Amino acid sequence: xxxLKKADITIxxxxxxxxxxxxxxxxxxxxxxxxxxxERMSDYWPEWEGDTVICDECGAEFRIGKVEVx
Length: 70
Ligand SMILES: [Zn+2]
Description:
This protein is mainly beta. The protein has a domain at 17-63. Helix content is 9%, strand content 23%. The chain has one helix at 33-38, and strands at residues 17-21, 28-32, 52-54, 61-63. It has a two-stranded antiparallel sheet with strand order 1-2. The chain is elongated and about 70 Å long. Zinc ion binds next to loops.
């Protein structure tokens, strides 16, 4: 009997949402990843640091600090 060949598989994890705590209103905000990404100047998240975000809760503008992947 012939051995079947093997292939490794890769599971691609898609980002779901972005979470931040607004530095002005203090709310924990969850934004849909694709909506959040659409508003960024780059669609490559490691380049998001320093980009300006408008808080979904209070409308205040703040800058992105560190970006962490959970
Ligand atoms: Zn806010």
